[in-house]
Amino acid sequence: MATAVIVDAVRTPIGKGKPSGALHDVHPVDLLAHSLRAVVERTGIDPAEIDDVITGVVTQSGEQSLNIARRGLLAAGYPESVPGVSVDRQCGSGQQAIAFAAQAVASGAADVVVAAGVESMSRVPMGSAAFGTENLNGQAFEERYPDGLVGQGISAELIAARYGISRTAIDEFALRSHELAATATKNGLFDGELAPIAGLTADEGIRTGSTLDQLTGLRPAYFDESIARRFPEIDWRITAAGASQISDGSAALLVTSEEAAARLGLRPRARVHTAVVAGDDPLLMLTAIMPATRKALAKSGLSLSDIDLFEVNEAFAPVVLAWQQELGVDLDKVNVHGGAIALGHPLGASGARLATTGLAALEQQGGRYLLQTMCEAGGLANATIYERIV
């Protein structure tokens, strides 16, 4: 079996997903093409060598419909002979693209694959793929869950209540994310992974100079009277500050076999050591990162103490804090350059963005292993372990 390696990883700066955001006027096909073009330019590979382009994208409607991977690679100038496919594992789509690329390489089905992710949340509204749908779930699903599921914000509130995560802890974690991201930006720690686009040279959502007092004055974002009656244990601790930002962005990674890298004169940065997926309670929805982490460690033969850095998607602050509490991970190893609360969460791109940022941080700190995990709608999670090549 071949070993899948990551030769390089690049991302756009992340723009605010608003009409005033810097990337609002960038079509998602062009947004994806920018990262696809950048990863080829950085590595110097002939794009005719690419066997497939696997792209994560969540809201596959409007401008992101009809297999954006294919349109994106053609817009990037790749030969017409290069195929592409779009995948949807909700927020983990970009991370799943990396896993699928690694599996294709390891199996021998492909030698060179680009794994990417894209989402323009300002141009393609979240959830718009289901607009106009009268019954999304069908009879059998509703019979299994007669009380219905809830939105992710409510799931995060349920997690906060179950794990006893206070409003103060949530606000402090949110502030930490912005402070770490601001420091990383100031010190140029993102520079090597960024491909500026449309005049945007740095992540747009970082709030420098935020204070805890400012965050404590914000109102809960997800209060709902009917939900409050159904779940009286919720005391509404999460504000907009404790949730990931709606954003625009893309990222791309070049994944090859070790043999192909040697043949093409490429120097790999990391091995894809282990990649797993897991499921958990769809009501709590965001807790599957816990069994996914355990599954990845068991499959890899590694322990938590072997992992130098962790990238855990900051969909909501309580998700990361509950994971950290349950597993006993040192928070100083988690999201060391901030996370989605500060940087943003362009859904389909985030898995590829976390890998790009995490690998750069691993190199900067001289570590060996990075574990990345991301919660996903429906009670799913990906977990991937990367091993840096020295």
TrEMBL record:
PROSITE patterns: THIOLASE_2. Keywords: Acyltransferase, Transferase. Belongs to the thiolase-like superfamily. Thiolase family. One of its GO terms (molecular function) is acyltransferase activity. InterPro entries: Thiolase (IPR002155), Thiolase-like (IPR016039), Thiolase_C (IPR020617), Thiolase_CS (IPR020613), Thiolase_N (IPR020616). NCBIfam families: AcCoA-C-Actrans. This is Acetyl-CoA acyltransferase. Residues 267-387 form the Thiolase C-terminal domain. Residues 5-259 form the Thiolase N-terminal domain. It comes from the Bacteria.
